[in-house]
Design goal:
The chain contains three helices and no strands. With 89 residues, the chain is mainly α. The protein is elongated, with a radius of gyration of 13 Å.
């Protein structure tokens, strides 16, 4: 991953975190900063996995990479919402 790709993943990750939170059903009792952090990590992971499969650089919009990022964000939000919700009780 190039440096520009890393910074792009961070910026896109902020949006991906919000999308991941929207995909997970129910109410998530996690702070917004944690959602954004999950989104950044999910964007980086999604980019790395898309690169491993060879679908990270296609002509036009990289829909597969974007879908991978949202899936990783949804998984991360679901995991942390479960952990954070139980801990706060």
């Amino acid at each position: 991953m190039e440096v520009t790709g890393f910074f792009t993943a961070i910026v896109i990750g902020l949006i991906i975190g919000a999308l991941g939170r929207l995909v997970v059903p129910g109410k998530q009792n996690i702070p917004i900063w944690l959602t954004l952090l999950i989104g950044v990590v999910a964007a980086i992971l999604g980019t790395l996995v898309a690169g491993a499969f060879g679908v990270d650089d296609t002509g036009g919009v990289d829909w597969i990479e974007l879908a991978l990022q949202v899936v990783f964000a949804a998984i991360g939000v679901a995991i942390f919402a479960g952990m954070y919700g139980r801990r706060r009780v």
